């Protein structure tokens, strides 16, 4: 009997160790392969043994499972804590060396950005945030991670290809293969040349006008109480879905807020919308026009338009709205900065004679290039994206499969990152690193963007500021996003007096409501708003 137990236990200890070796060597393995081994290995090995050695007593599957799982658990924990792990020398809390459960909790409550920043404050610019994962905010490592010689997207994007139930749609943002990503990126680059962006300006200007008109009519009889966060989200969606006129009837903005959780539901709606677009609006010179042109009318057209529609909608809409809301919050929290911006904008509108209402009706009035020259406006947008980056922790990269490993070096620190391990660049912590932005790192000071490199008042290390990421997978829509934000902010500041709607709504709740769900999701921002008197 004792010999039987020893035999079963010994066989399953060896099986568990072999399973750990297999997982370690070939990770990531498919869920099915892992589940099959974990479920079937103990009974098969034990049964086989008892069949081969008839004198070994009765077959005991419960004991087999118990020994197998306990051994596997101990082996995995010991390895993750051991000096033999490739990330062993990187500092970080012990619990994160063992499991990502703590990070998963922070992500679940939407506060991953705060948690990761606290880790960097304590452990330095390179932290081990999981058994096989690092978080990095060392600017010298950014090109090696995100740049042309960097790495493709990491495993967080596995399984994120969209499906409508019958077809699968690969997306640019989720592509983990460098060559495939480069091919998929071509139409996006064509869709954001400076000529193309000038065409989008024609579509954008009437939207900005309509947005302002709607707010003006709300405040026609004095002061309007508005949740500007909701209005700005609707504004960002308005070109595609006509929300400003109809309200959020299709619940797309609401769905969007939860999109990172309920991707499939959102995508089914996105596919439906893209079918409508591809049938109706491809002739217009919008993003989809250029996408269609780039594909040359091939049979992949439809697939690409669908994929692009979904990605552009997800990538474009709540990103710009998030920055605009955070800019409003920051300006209203710093009245002297608000005043400085208002003076600059008023001067600009006067100089360009933009105040003659009728002139603004037509989309032919375009001054995006001139707005790009407004120093303080741009400084406000920069400072907002420094403190509130739209992708706070999610720039995830991993060594290209088949390359073995990636070597990262900063000064005397050398990290060898084998396949199966990954790196996150946490913009929220990077942009709030006092090494790069000093003094008053946590404060909203647009002036730091106006300083020159000789300026002694501010340290502003521009290489450490990458709100649109960098390298081959940087934000494809950057020029459009910047243009949209400049227009929207300049017109809001020019046309309205705004203040927090206190005491009815506590502005502090705005910060509490910000959630890191890959993009920075927002809560409500209640303002009192009145139209500014015009001469
Ligand atoms: C303030 C607004 C925006 C910010 C801060 C922003 C930021 C970002 C960031 C940080 C990434 C890179 C993710 C990574 O490296 O893993 C990204 C990717 C992307 N963004 Fe934006 N974005 C904005 C608006 C837009 C707009 C308006 C569009 C298009 C209409 C857009 C389209 C994309 C696309 C297609 C990608 C994927 C690029 C690739 O994987 O090659 N974004 N964005």
UniProtKB/TrEMBL annotation:
<dbReference type="GO" id="GO:0020037">
    <property type="term" value="F:heme binding"/>
</dbReference>
<comment type="similarity">
    <text>Belongs to the cytochrome P450 family.</text>
</comment>
<feature type="transmembrane region" description="Helical">
    <location>
        <begin position="29"/>
        <end position="50"/>
    </location>
</feature>
<dbReference type="InterPro" id="IPR001128">
    <property type="entry name" value="Cyt_P450"/>
</dbReference>
<keyword id="KW-0479">Metal-binding</keyword>
<comment type="pathway">
    <text>Secondary metabolite biosynthesis.</text>
</comment>
<keyword id="KW-0472">Membrane</keyword>
<dbReference type="Pfam" id="PF00067">
    <property type="entry name" value="p450"/>
</dbReference>
<keyword id="KW-0812">Transmembrane</keyword>
<keyword id="KW-0349">Heme</keyword>
<feature type="binding site" description="axial binding residue">
    <location>
        <position position="475"/>
    </location>
    <ligand>
        <name>heme</name>
    </ligand>
</feature>
<dbReference type="InterPro" id="IPR036396">
    <property type="entry name" value="Cyt_P450_sf"/>
</dbReference>
<protein>
    <recommendedName>
        <fullName>Cytochrome P450</fullName>
    </recommendedName>
</protein>
<keyword id="KW-0503">Monooxygenase</keyword>
<keyword id="KW-1133">Transmembrane helix</keyword>
<keyword id="KW-0560">Oxidoreductase</keyword>
<dbReference type="GO" id="GO:0005506">
    <property type="term" value="F:iron ion binding"/>
</dbReference>
<dbReference type="InterPro" id="IPR050121">
    <property type="entry name" value="Cytochrome_P450_monoxygenase"/>
</dbReference>
<feature type="transmembrane region" description="Helical">
    <location>
        <begin position="62"/>
        <end position="81"/>
    </location>
</feature>
<dbReference type="GO" id="GO:0016705">
    <property type="term" value="F:oxidoreductase activity, acting on paired donors, with incorporation or reduction of molecular oxygen"/>
</dbReference>
<keyword id="KW-0408">Iron</keyword>
<dbReference type="InterPro" id="IPR002401">
    <property type="entry name" value="Cyt_P450_E_grp-I"/>
</dbReference>
<dbReference type="GO" id="GO:0004497">
    <property type="term" value="F:monooxygenase activity"/>
</dbReference>
């Amino acid at each position: 009997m004792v010999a039987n137990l020893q035999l079963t236990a010994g066989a399953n200890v060896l099986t568990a160790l072999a399973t750990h070796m297999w997982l370690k060597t070939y990770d990531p393995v498919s869920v099915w392969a892992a589940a099959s081994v974990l479920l079937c290995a103990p009974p098969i090995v034990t049964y086989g043994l008892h069949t081969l050695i008839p004198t070994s007593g009765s077959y005991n599957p419960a004991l087999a499972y118990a020994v197998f799982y306990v051994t596997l658990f101990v082996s995995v924990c010991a390895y993750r804590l051991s000096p033999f792990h490739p990330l062993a020398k990187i500092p970080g809390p012990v619990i994160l060396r063992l499991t990502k459960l703590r990070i998963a909790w922070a992500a679940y409550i939407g506060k991953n950005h705060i948690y990761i920043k606290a880790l960097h404050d304590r452990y330095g610019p390179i932290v081990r945030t999981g058994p096989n994962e690092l978080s990095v905010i060392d600017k010298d490592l950014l090109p090696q991670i995100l740049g042309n010689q960097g790495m493709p997207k990491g495993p967080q994007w596995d399984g994120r290809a969209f499906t409508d139930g019958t077809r699968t749609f690969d997306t640019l943002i989720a592509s983990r293969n460098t060559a495939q990503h480069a091919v998929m990126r071509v139409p996006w680059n064509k869709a954001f040349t400076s000529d193309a962006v000038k065409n989008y300006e024609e579509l954008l200007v009437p939207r900005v006008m309509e947005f302002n008109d709607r707010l003006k009519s709300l405040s026609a009889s004095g002061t309007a109480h508005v949740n500007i966060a909701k209005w700005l989200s609707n504004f960002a969606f308005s070109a595609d879905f006509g929300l400003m006129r109809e309200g959020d009837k299709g619940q797309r903005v609401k769905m969007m807020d939860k999109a990172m959780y309920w991707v499939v539901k959102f995508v089914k709606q996105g596919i439906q919308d893209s079918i409508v677009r591809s049938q109706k609006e491809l002739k217009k010179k919008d993003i989809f026009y250029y996408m269609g042109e780039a594909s040359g009318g091939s049979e992949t057209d439809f697939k690409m338009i669908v994929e692009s529609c979904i990605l552009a909608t997800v990538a474009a809409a709540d990103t710009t709205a998030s920055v605009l809301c955070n800019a409003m919050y920051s300006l209203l929290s710093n009245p002297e900065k608000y005043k400085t911006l208002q003076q600059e904008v008023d001067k600009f509108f006067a100089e360009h004679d933009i105040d003659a209402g009728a002139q603004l009706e037509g989309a032919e009035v375009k001054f995006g290039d001139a707005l790009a020259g407004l120093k303080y406006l741009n400084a406000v947008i920069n400072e907002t994206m420094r403190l509130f980056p739209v992708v706070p922790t999610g720039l995830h990269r991993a060594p290209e499969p088949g390359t073995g490993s990636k070597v990262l070096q900063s000064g005397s620190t050398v990290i060898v990152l084998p396949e199966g391990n990954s790196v996150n660049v946490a913009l929220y912590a990077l942009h709030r690193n006092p090494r790069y932005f000093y003094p008053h790192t946590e404060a909203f000071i647009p002036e730091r963007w106006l300083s020159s490199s000789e300026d002694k008042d501010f340290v502003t290390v521009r290489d450490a500021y990458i709100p649109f990421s960098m390298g081959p997978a940087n934000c494809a829509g950057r020029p459009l996003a910047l243009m949209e934000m400049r227009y929207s902010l300049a017109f809001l500041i020019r046309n309205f007096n705004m203040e927090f709607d206190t005491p009815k709504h506590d502005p502090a709740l705005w910060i509490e409501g910000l959630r890191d769900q890959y993009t920075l999701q927002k809560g409500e921002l209640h303002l009192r708003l009145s139209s500014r008197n015009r001469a």
